Amino acid sequence: MSHSAPPTPVASGPASGRILVVRGGALGDFILTLPVLAALRSHFPGNRIEVLGYPQWASLAVETGLADDARSIEARPLAGFFARGGSLDSDLSGYFRSFHLIVSFLFDPDLIFRTNVGLASQAGFIQGPHRPDETLPLHACDQLLRPLQQLAVFDADAVPRLRRARNGAAPDGVRRIAVHPGSGSERKNWPEAAWAELLRRLSQDPGLRFLLVGADAEGDRLERLAAALPPDHSEVLRARPLPEVANRLAGCTGFLGHDSGITHLAAAIGLPGIVLWGPSRLPVWRPRSDRMDILESGGDLATLLPGTVEAAIRGKIGSW
User: How much is the pLDDT for 231?
Assistant: First the structure.
């Protein structure tokens, strides 16, 4: 097959066909890309939409109807598509060839992936940013939606939404608060000792219980925090499949966390909460939800005192 230039962006989406969205990155990046999937679903209802990404994230889009299917971006045969002059797997070439439109949010500064996909497929190709530009005063969701203007999509809902049946009111009157005391970066984390003191204070309220949520990145932090609480006041949900985490979050009354993917997930489900905000650019990365209150630290979370956070929570929890 002879080499050719990458396909040019398309001016309009197909009326009926197949659309592929390619998305890598962490959980938060995927959650903030949900408005793209929702816009494609809304504006091109006759199309089948698929995701090429990390299965643990993409499963959320499939389960909630934002995508029809997902394929793993970690498949070994894909390596050839990321190499200049790489060997292109025939099955994957047929996969790319089956789409009418491909929207990619991969880091591809030299257009290697785009060029190789163009060798296999005549699909229209739209290149989106793999990461929002933090120098712009625009939220990440708005920046990720911008490439769809090439499809005449200008009025998309820029709020990530994951349909989940909310059942936060327990029949026993107990409020169950989801707590994510971690993130992908320690710079974004409140010190563990501060979390322990906050939970000790809150646990004095007999009407509160805590669901401590996290992944392997949190290490034993969840277990240590739970062990310091009264018996039966907490449950640890660690490294569980994301749809299960989403369902458990939906059953909570409120949420406490940092700038993290789990926080964006809780916001997309519709949970109210308080987010302890550290060094990240707030206008770009804040949860897109008017139910999430931000408690800023001036860039250094260690300066937030447990008493300050407790007062903020108690001022809000009655309305959750």
Answer: 87
Q: Where are the domains of the chain?
A: 18-151, 175-319
User: Rounded to the nearest 5°, which phi and psi values hold at 124?
Assistant: -60, 145
Query: Is 297 within 8 Å of 281 (Cβ atoms)?
Result: no
Same fold, 18-151 and 175-319: yes
Could you please state the CATH topology (level 3) that the domain comprising 175-319 is classified under: Rossmann fold (3.40.50)
Separation CA 164–CA 167 (nearest Å): 9
Q: Hey, how many other C-beta atoms are within 10 angstroms of the C-beta on 112? A: 17
pLDDT tens digits along 238-255: 999 999 999 999 999 999
Query: What pTM was estimated for this model as a whole?
Result: 0.92
100-113 pLDDT tens trace: 999 999 999 999 99
Q: Please tell me what DSSP assigns to residue 117.
A: H
CA distance 22 to 71: 10
Instruction: Summarize the confidence of residues 161-175 as an average pLDDT.
Output: 74
